[in-house]
């Protein structure tokens, strides 16, 4: 109401001012012309008086102007002066209340017109509408430094960039000392560590981001151990032809899409993309620890399908997925999976992520069994003193809950028939992990303590030990994944990082893991004498793998990212 009244007053004042200004301007022009005529007439008479041809006392000048004409001009001039005075008084009376009203409505920090301005100029300055500016949109999550996050690259600058392509190069090399000393140097049940007492290229990736006229694409290759171990954990490749495991083994990310200039941006991408279920990144350089807890190791590292990233604000992302299945290159059965991520950063110190998955029939050969999973994380930077030796501290907490239902299993517990026989076993996943990170001497050093627990009856998310070359599709008789098979485990790690440049990390880590059943590689290893023999799903005569309930390891890694 007040804003409408103020706008009406300003509009009326402006209209009145324009009318009066125009009236004064017309009169001023008339007077100017009259004065010029009088001046010209006076000049002519003066010249005539000095000229010898004109006799003093004559009533006629050379211009033809008579004394009676001069008297009429003077009279009209007096009338104009009086009229101008009236107009000026009216203008002052009309301007005063509007000036007072405009001054009252102005904010206290609004600059007034200088006193040296004429009244008309001052009125124009005060009645002019205030300048309005629309805040420019910023790129999502670009108004804060997020390099402290677990699962996020810590590079603050790109080594090279262009309008069309931003390259990316990653190298991850490790050496592992396993206190169990498996004689075949094979580590079991890990998503990051696969060989012991050897220098191994964990991952070498070359690629980057392409971007031009809203069209986008990303390619990251993967060579080294990841190209062998990642496909062996995908059972969907056993369904159908064309050997999907070989087709995609050298790709960690491969997608193309389009950016839509709406809201704070919308991206539509199709191909292979990272899932980040379990908070930790697929790339160890991005993480606070090298060997993450079970919640991260046993949940998807990638999806293949279509995603839509919607940014309603600069601090919120809503990302639905339509994918082939749970970390799979193809479908396990006849039904794909759906899911999505919600990421929210209310301020520069808090990151909240929720990943959810459902409806996928992800048990090979059991089309009636479906999977549900929810994964939720929070990361908080609770201390930030850049000028102190201990310059930063942050923690992360992740909780996961999931289950399978149908095909002889149940989410809610064992189900019995009328005779008391169990017809459906409980098949669920419950786990958490927590980490605390310390940075020292302007992020030159880092130290992380963390770990977690998991309970996965049915073992449907437990990574299968590679006994006699077994993979997710073949299974192994030495470590079954039948409904109701128990699996409870916990782990802890201590990690020290030396980071002399933003592109390199030297990492030392001690990790300990325990399970309620024999699971980790022991001294006897998991390979039959003479190498893999026969079919992995069939027992090998006179062979039994050496599996232990406990495992302790030392890890040294050098990781680079450009």
Q: What tags apply to this protein structure?
A:
disordered N terminus, 36% strand, 562 residues, 16-stranded antiparallel β-barrel, 21 strands, three-stranded mixed beta sheet, alpha+beta
Q: Could you give a short description of this structure?
A:
The protein is built from 6 helices and 21 strands. The protein is an alpha+beta fold and 562 residues long.
Structure, described:
This protein is α+β, with helices and mostly antiparallel strands and 562 residues long. The strands form three sheets. Strands 1-2-3-4-5-6-7-8-9-10-11-15-16-17-18-21 form a 16-stranded antiparallel beta barrel. The protein has a three-stranded mixed sheet with strand order 12-14-13, with no helix packed on it. Strands 19-20 form a two-stranded antiparallel sheet. Strand 8 and strand 9 form a beta hairpin.
Number of strands: 21
What strand line-up does the widest sheet have?
A: 1-2-3-4-5-6-7-8-9-10-11-15-16-17-18-21
Distance between the amino and carboxyl termini? 59 Å
Query: Which descriptor suits the 3D outline?
Result: elongated
The biggest beta sheet reads: 16 strands, antiparallel, barrel
The number of helical segments is 6
Estimate the helix proportion, in percent.
10-25%
Low-confidence stretches: 1-6, 16-20, 32-65, 100-119
Mean pLDDT level: 85
Counting helices, strands and paired strands, the structural category is alpha+beta
Q: What percent strand?
A: 35-45%
- The radius of gyration over CA amounts to 41 Å
Secondary-structure element order, as H and E? HHHEEEHHEEHEEEEEEEEEEEEEEEE
């Amino acid at each position: 109401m007040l804003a409408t009244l103020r706008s009406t007053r300003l509009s009326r004042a402006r209209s009145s001012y324009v009318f009066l200004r125009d009236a004064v301007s017309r009169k001023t022009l008339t007077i100017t012309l009259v004065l010029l005529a009088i001046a010209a007439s006076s000049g002519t008479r003066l010249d005539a008086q000095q000229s010898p041809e004109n006799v003093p006392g004559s009533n006629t000048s050379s211009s033809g102007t008579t004394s009676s004409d001069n008297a009429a001009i003077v009279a009209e001039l007096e009338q104009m002066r009086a009229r101008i005075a009236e107009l000026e008084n009216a203008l002052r009376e009309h301007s005063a209340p509007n000036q007072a009203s405009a001054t009252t409505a102005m904010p206290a920090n609004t600059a007034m017109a200088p006193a040296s301005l004429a009244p008309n100029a001052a009125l124009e300055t005060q009645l002019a509408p205030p300048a309005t500016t629309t805040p420019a949109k910023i790129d999502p999550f670009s108004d804060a430094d997020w390099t402290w996050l677990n699962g996020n690259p810590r590079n603050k600058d790109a080594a090279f960039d262009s309008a069309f392509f931003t390259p990316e190069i990653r190298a991850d090399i490790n050496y592992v000392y396993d206190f169990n000393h498996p004689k075949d140097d094979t580590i079991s049940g890990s998503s990051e560590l696969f060989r012991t007492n050897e220098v191994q290229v964990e991952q070498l990736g070359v690629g980057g981001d392409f971007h031009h006229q809203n069209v986008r694409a990303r390619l990251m290759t993967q060579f080294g151990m990841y190209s062998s171990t990642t496909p062996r954990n995908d059972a969907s490749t056993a369904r159908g032809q064309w050997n999907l495991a070989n087709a995609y083994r050298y790709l960690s990310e491969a997608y193309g899409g389009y950016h839509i200039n709406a809201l704070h941006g919308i991206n539509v991408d199709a191909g292979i993309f990272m899932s980040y279920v379990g908070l930790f990144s697929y790339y160890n350089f991005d993480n606070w620890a090298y060997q993450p807890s079970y919640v991260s190791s046993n949940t998807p590292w990638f999806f293949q399908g279509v995603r839509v990233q919607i940014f309603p604000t600069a601090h919120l992302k809503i990302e639905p997925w339509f994918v082939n299945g749970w970390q799979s290159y193809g479908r396990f059965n006849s039904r794909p999976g759906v899911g999505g991520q919600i990421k929210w950063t209310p301020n520069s110190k808090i990151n909240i992520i929720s990943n959810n998955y459902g409806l996928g029939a992800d048990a090979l050969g059991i089309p009636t069994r479906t999977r549900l999973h929810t994964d939720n994380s929070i990361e908080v930077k609770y201390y930030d003193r850049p000028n102190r030796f201990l310059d930063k501290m942050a923690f992360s907490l992740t909780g996961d809950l999931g289950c399978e239902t149908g095909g002889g299993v149940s989410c809610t517990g064992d189900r019995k028939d009328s005779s008391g026989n169990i017809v459906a076993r409980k098949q669920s996943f419950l786990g958490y992990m927590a980490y605390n990170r310390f940075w020292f001497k302007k992020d030159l050093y880092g130290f992380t303590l963390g770990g977690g627990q998991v309970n996965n009856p049915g073992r449907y998310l437990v990574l299968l030990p590679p006994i006699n070359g077994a993979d997710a599709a073949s299974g192994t008789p030495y470590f079954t994944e039948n409904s109701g098979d128990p699996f409870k485990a916990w782990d802890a790690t201590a990690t020290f990082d030396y980071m002399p440049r933003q592109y390199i990390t030297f990492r030392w880590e001690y990790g300990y893991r325990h399970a309620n059943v024999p699971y980790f590689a022991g001294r006897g290893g998991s390979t039959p004498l003479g190498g893999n023999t026969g079919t992995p799903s069939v027992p090998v005569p006179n062979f039994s793998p050496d599996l232990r309930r406990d495992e302790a390891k030392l890890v040294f890694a050098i990781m680079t990212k450009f």
